[in-house]
Amino acid sequence: MKKGILFLMVVLNVFTSLGQQNKKIYFYEIDDVISKPAKKKTEIAIKEADNEKADIILLRLNTFGGELEAADQIRTMLMKTEIPVFVFIDVNAASAGALISIACDSIYMAPGASIGAASVVNETGEIMPDKYQSYMRSLMRSTAEKQGRDPDIAQAMVDPDVSIDNIIDSGKVLTFTTAEAIKYGFCEAQVSSKEGALKAAGIHQYTIVEQKLSWIDQIILFLIKPAISGLLIMLIVGGIYFELQSPGIGFPLVVAIIAALLFFAPHYLGGLAQHWEILIFIVGLILLVVEIFVIPGFGVFGIVGIVLIVASLVLAMIFNINFDFSFTTSATIFQKIAIVITSLTIGFGLSIWLGKKLILADTRFGSIALKTELSKDSGFLSQGEGLFHLVGKKGITTTILRPSGKVQIDDESFDAISEYGIIEKGTPITAIKFENSQLIVRKD
Q1: Full-model pTM
Q2: pLDDT digits (tens, 9 = 90+) for 266-309
Q3: What is the DSSP string of 332-371?
Q4: Could you tell me if 205 and 224 lie in one domain?
Q5: How far apart are alpha carbons 311 and 248 in whole angstroms?
Q6: Could you say which of 308, 329, 360 is where a domain stops?
Q7: Do residues 74 and 199 both lie within one domain?
Q8: Residue 2: inside a domain, yes or no?
Q9: What range defines the domain where residue 299 resides?
Q10: In this structure, are 71 and 202 located in the same domain?
Q11: Partner residues linked to 207 by β-bridges
Q12: Fewest Cβ atoms nearer than 10 Å: which of 35, 135, 143, 205?
């Protein structure tokens, strides 16, 4: 009798397996802070899953949180796609990760995993003002309601003032273990792998298509990392600095332009940098070029140009809609400003240091600048030896010295070079020395 029942069960399972349609599963991972790269990977995943005609999108998630605007964009994309989305929480789905998880159609968690603690905090871990918490509460509630989960529990993951009988006391934000999440409807089952998640969902016949980023996508994800963005800003600053030291379309300006393209292109493709933000950078660069090549000295055009360049770099890294920063926390804004300012400072400092090393210092690299003096005592005669008598005399510049130009001394015109910086036309000067066939003057 038992053998007969067992035989019938085997036959039933075989027919069930034969009758089950093979499912196509699109699989991708977010195993880092929630930021622009995570948003980009999700965008690619949904597009490729649609092209592959996938039946299910399966996300393996492990994150302690990240940027609210990136999390909100990921949440929106996951909820709008017509393809069911499963999430397998491998270890943590904290803060922004909790919002993304709740946006999925089904949640599966590994043993020892956790979900919750979604209060908005700054980079030091301090709780942000209530206006940010209010926005996050509304996101958590609306997302939970949309996916058929308890909105009060979702709100308790953000608001420490929420108290739910037998679940959470007021004064604490809610975090669920795997068992607790299953008990209160925020997890379908405890599993140990993505295969386990599919099995728990009753899917036995399937083909997994894993996300394989193209080399272009990999480059974009690499370039929008904060550290790389900071490095590109340093190259922009360094290129502009060296171009200011030796005006003329040359290698430093080319480096600055290439670095700017590498900075803005991935941010634009990633949906962060807008047309007008790139336009601000271009206008700033044009004003700076005009200041260098057209207008004497360094004044309003140069200052406005630098301000516009800095502003465009900051805005390109911050999600906003025509200066509306509602979707961006102040912590994120300050973080991006800090990245830009730090990169600018380091870039400017390194430029000065490299300038001294490559041009002025007696180092192996400094040897590219000729510093050997062919003195009279060594038997060399300078071409303009007669100009030694001008040392100590006063005169006036008849052209801009940038740093070379024309001066007039004793009603005669001479080629000269400024000791330091740019000297405007019509400025009183004093000839301080004559060496290497150059009359060197100083502004009085």
Answers
A1: 0.60
A2: 777 766 666 787 888 888 888 877 776 666 556 788 788 888 88
A3: HHHHHHHHHHHHHHHHHHHHHHHHIIIIISSSTGGGGS--
A4: no
A5: 25
A6: 360
A7: yes
A8: no
A9: 216-360
A10: yes
A11: 24
A12: 205
